[in-house]
């Protein structure tokens, strides 16, 4: 099964409704995605990555009742993964060295301004085609690689790259038009 947002969310909802087999499949699919997520951020240390995968799966399992059924699943799950990664880096007193443009993957929103910005971004992206929206969300906001995003969405890597490029171009055009409209007022 290729893990997609829709597929993972469906498994989560089925699990919440009491389907133990669906919950088990969800955790298996999520484990595969989380392994790639953590290995990439822990400088290819598979042992540490596996520990964090297990900690995150436990958190997803124990906190599943807090999942809002009206929201996407993967950002919720990856938020837990980010918190586990940050906790791990604090415990081990490691300071990762990442390029500035990738620093956002290590951080989670902690204040209302960031939450508001997230809501604004959701509204701005709402008119984009679903494939572009998913490509941008997973690569630019969730911090997944193009390959991870392709696997998650069922698109080719080229389609993901094109979707990000076209989607960002469309967003920039909308922002410029919005700014021009404000200048006129």
Automatic annotation (TrEMBL):
Parts forming coiled coils: none
Q: Which residues form the RNA polymerase sigma factor 70 region 4 type domain?
A: 120-171
Lineage, top-rank taxon, reads: Bacteria
Q: Which InterPro entries match?
A: RNA_pol_sigma-70-like (IPR039425), RNA_pol_sigma-70_dom (IPR014284), RNA_pol_sigma70_r2 (IPR007627), RNA_pol_sigma70_r4_t2 (IPR013249), RNA_pol_sigma_r2 (IPR013325), RNA_pol_sigma_r3/r4-like (IPR013324), WH-like_DNA-bd_sf (IPR036388)
- Domain (RNA polymerase sigma-70 region): give its ranges: 32-95
Q: Which family does the record claim for this protein?
A: Belongs to the sigma-70 factor family. ECF subfamily.
Question: What name does UniProt use for this protein?
Answer: RNA polymerase sigma-70 factor (ECF subfamily)
- Name the species this protein comes from: Caulobacter ginsengisoli
Q: Which UniProt keywords apply?
A: DNA-binding, Sigma factor, Transcription, Transcription regulation
Gene3D superfamilies in the record:
1.10.1740.10, Winged helix-like DNA-binding domain superfamily/Winged helix DNA-binding domain
């Amino acid at each position: 099964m290729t893990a997609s947002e829709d597929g993972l969310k469906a498994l989560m909802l089925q699990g919440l409704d009491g389907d133990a087999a669906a919950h088990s499949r969800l955790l298996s699919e999520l484990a595969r995605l989380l392994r790639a997520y953590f290995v990439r951020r822990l400088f290819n240390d598979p042992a540490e990555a596996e520990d964090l995968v297990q900690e995150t799966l436990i958190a997803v399992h124990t906190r599943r009742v807090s999942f809002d059924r009206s929201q996407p699943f993967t950002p919720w799950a990856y938020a837990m993964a980010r918190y586990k990664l940050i906790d791990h880096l604090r415990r081990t007193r490691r300071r990762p060295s990442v390029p500035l443009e990738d620093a956002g993957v290590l951080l989670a929103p902690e204040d209302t301004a960031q939450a508001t910005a997230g809501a604004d971004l959701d509204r701005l992206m709402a008119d984009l085609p679903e494939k572009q929206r998913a490509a941008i969300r997973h690569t630019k906001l969730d911090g997944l690689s193009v390959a991870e995003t392709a696997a998650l969405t069922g698109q080719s890597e080229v389609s993901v790259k094109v979707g990000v490029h076209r989607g960002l171009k469309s967003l920039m055009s909308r922002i410029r038009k919005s700014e021009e409209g404000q200048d006129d007022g």
